[in-house]
Amino acid sequence: MGDWDDSLEQTPTYQKLLQKGREEALRQAVVDVVQERFPEITVFAQKQVESLEDTRLLRRLIAKMSGAQTVQEAVQSLITIDNDAKKN
Fold this sequence. Notes:
With about 90 residues, this protein is mainly α. About 80% of the residues lie in helices and about 0% in strands.
């Protein structure tokens, strides 16, 4: 059964599902950090990240949300990351 599992893991469909899972986990991590630190902008954060698929940008956003000192700084980071995503 091991060979079949290995073959499955190499299929494009499996790889896409794995990537989608990573993206969703990172989007949820952004929202979790925002909800903990700046609950008043949680809905805004959800909307900003819902279509973001670049895992590099999502990881960067987690770091920015973790280090934001004010709600204004957090909002600006969410806006900036959305603009960065649209450029790519």
